[in-house]
Amino acid sequence: MAPAGRMSVFFREGNDWFCNAGLPSDITVIVDGVNFHLHKFPLISKCGKIAKIVEESQSVQEGTFTTTLEGFLGGPDTFLLAAKFCYGVKVEFTARNIIMVYCVADYLEMTDEYGEDNLRSMSESFFHNNVLRSWKDCIMALQSSEPVGKKADELQIISKCLNSLSMMVCTDPSLFGWPMMMYGSLQSPGGSILWNGINTGARIRSSESNWWFEDVSYLSVFLFERLIWTMEKRGIRPENLAGAIMYYAKKYLPGMGRWQGGQSTHTRTVASLNLTPVVVDQRVLLESIVKLLPEKKGKSFCRFLLGLLRVALILGVNDLCQDSLERRIGVQLDFASLDSLLIPSYSDSDTLYNTDCVERIIHHFTSSEPKPSLFSPLSCDLEDSPSSGPIKIVARLIDGYMAEVASDVNLKPGKMRALAEALPESSRSLNDGLYRALDIYFKAHPWLPDKEKEQLCNIIDFQKLSIDACAHASQNERLPLRVILQVLFFEQLQLRAALAGCLHVLDPESAPAGLTNIPTDIPGQIIQRDGWVSVVRQNRVLKVDLETMKSRVGELEEDLSKMKQEMRRVTKSHSSLSSPRFVGRRTGCKLVPRSSDAQEDIVEIMPPTPRVSVEPARTSGASRHRKTFSLT
Q: CA-to-CA distance for 144 and 136, rounded, in angstroms?
């Protein structure tokens, strides 16, 4: 049937195209099963490839010539456009068809050698003068280049478009007066956009904004990946590249919008571009995004990586991609939040959360942390270590994570122990978080035997429990009796340590060098380093007790000495006043001593022992004075 109004000399009947030129067709070209009944002269005068085919054919003078173009680029529609050009029909170039026309013209060898202003030179001129200068046309041309991607790469059409886009992104048009045709063909000298010669006051956005994120998200994964590499080579800031990658992932990966809380929305829509989102393979997309992401740290970026890891576990990406994500998260685990770390278990596991994945992330973190130097008494302050901040943050995060997953009834005791031991002991200044997690675990697993409970409690350093935690643990019925006894014992040690720190009675000269600065004002916190500082701390407490005991014993000895002196003085005075010899002298009588009295006097002059009380001494003195007197 002929086209409406017969405005075109080409018309279609079923699967055949005809040209109403008034002459019978002498050549038939078959493209993808569609027959084009044309004339040799217009074709060979413009198309070098068909001219060569006709010349090489032996049946060129015999009837209608038929040839088939296998694997023709662009399909029947593009060949129809090239055929119209050969017949002198005006061809309209657009951003959507220019790359296909450019590639077809090169494939058919429609160069100026076979005619002036041939299709290849005209399409090339339109591509360089119009498409490469317009952001909008570059995006649309790239999106329509997929059918001829290989040929376009050979002609460097794709790379030229990507370079043009990169240049527009990294250059501020308001500084150079560069025309951006998506905003109109004219600009004021100051860079404002003109509409019909009127200054609108709107200025073109600079390269620091995210105005281009939405536009490039309409490219295929392959082209988007190449565009990011091209921009990186041009020196575009990694923050902008990461923002574009995160935007692209949010658009095509399910559930990623939740994990981009800090991502700002785009500032310009592209409804005028009339583009439709591309169809992507989500697994291929995620693996490509992981390779594209720059080495960056931050709370929002770490949250985005954890969201990617969730999607990766759902899609079942390869091990290399998953390990790369876990490593990236591990090196910045101190920026993670508890809710984003609670990764559900998407496999056949009975547990609610994927604790194995979190354990691997912790190992990546510990391996990335700088190794502490050998212990030296001169530098034993752990709190001032530059790497103590992140590791203590991670320790609190993991304690909170363990408390959350502890309520899972299917979680094995070995998993809890593995999570707790994944971090070194020095990472926790207090073990209250560990105790809370185990208490929740024991509450959710009441059937657990005491032996397994004791094994789990071994991960707690009871010397690092606060006074409140010790008070709670000493009355916790869910803990084994042996553990409660340990808690009570260390609670007494903590009270002694707190008392010693408040009194400040330690002699600095008797302490080992470098240990006089050990803080003692933190109740319940005992510093440990290879077990040595703990022993020193206990020795300090014992020394305080010993000094106190010495002082008390000295006071008691002094009181006892005074009591002895007073007893001797009182006894001597009383004996001299009541003696019979003294009474005889006063009355003029003479005392005749007996042998027994002499023996008693000998016994009486012996010094009394400290155990003899005053009252017995008085009683013995009274009986000693019962004697007989004789007058001379």
A: 13
* Interacting residues of 429 by C-beta distance below 8 A, sequence separation 6+: 382, 383, 392, 464, 525
**417 closest CA partner among 404, 406, 432, 429:** 406
Amino acid (one-letter) located at 8: S
Are the C-beta atoms of residues 181 and 104 closer than 8 Å to each other? no
Task: Name 34's bridge partners.
Answer: 31
- Per-residue pLDDT of 514-539, as tens digits, reads 444 444 444 444 433 334 445 555 66
Residue (of 211, 201, 202) closest to 269 by Cα position? 211
Torsion of CA 567, 570, 576, 579, to 10 degrees: -80
Q: How many other CB atoms sit within 10 Å of the CB of residue 235? A: 8
Contact 312, 245 (CB under 8 A): no
Query: Could you tell me whether strands 198-203 and 27-31 are parallel, antiparallel, or unpaired per DSSP bridges?
Result: unpaired
Which has the closest alpha carbon to 523: 391, 434, 430?
A: 430
- Would you state the torsion angle of the CA atoms of residues 543, 544, 545, 547, taken in this order, to the nearest 10 degrees? 80
| Cα gap 174→184, rounded to integer Å | 14
**pLDDT class for 326, splitting at 50, 70, 90?**
very high
**Six-digit token pair at 90?**
């005006």
Residue 274, number of CB atoms within 10 A of its CB:
8
Kindly write down the DSSP assignment for every residue of 129-196, as one continuous string: IIITT-HHHHHHHHHTTGGGHHHHHHTTHHHHHHHHHHHHHHS-HHHHT---GGG-S-B-TTSEEEET
CA–CA gap between residue 131 and residue 93 (Å, rounded)? 10
Residue 14: partners with Cβ closer than 8 Å, 6 or more residues away: none
User: pLDDT by residue (tens digit) across 374-404?
Assistant: 444 433 444 444 446 899 999 999 999 999 9
Q: Would you state the pLDDT for residue 542?
A: 72
The Cα–Cα gap between 503 and 171 comes to 68
Tokens of 52: 């060569």
Report pLDDT digits (tens) over 483-513: 888 888 877 776 777 677 666 544 444 444 4
Give the helix/strand (H/E) hosting 111: none
At 15 the pLDDT is 87
CA angle 340, 346, 348 (to 5 degrees): 145
Nearest-angstrom CA–CA distance, 368 and 363: 9
pLDDT in tens, 6-44: 444 788 888 888 888 778 888 889 998 899 988 888 888
CA atoms of 14 and 35, how far apart (whole Å): 10
* DSSP character string of 517-571: T----STT----STTHHHHHHHHHHHHHHHHHHHHHHHHHHHHHHHHHHHHHHHH
Tokens of 367: 């391996």
Contact in structure between 399 and 431 (CB atoms under 8 Å) = no
Rg (CA), the chain: 49
581 Cβ contact partners less than 8 Å away, ≥ 6 residues apart:
591
Query: What pLDDT does 59 receive?
Result: 54
Pairing verdict, β 16-19 and 198-203: unpaired
Q: φ, ψ for residue 29 (rounded to 5)?
A: -110, 125
CA angle in degrees (0–180, nearest 5) for 235-239-244: 95
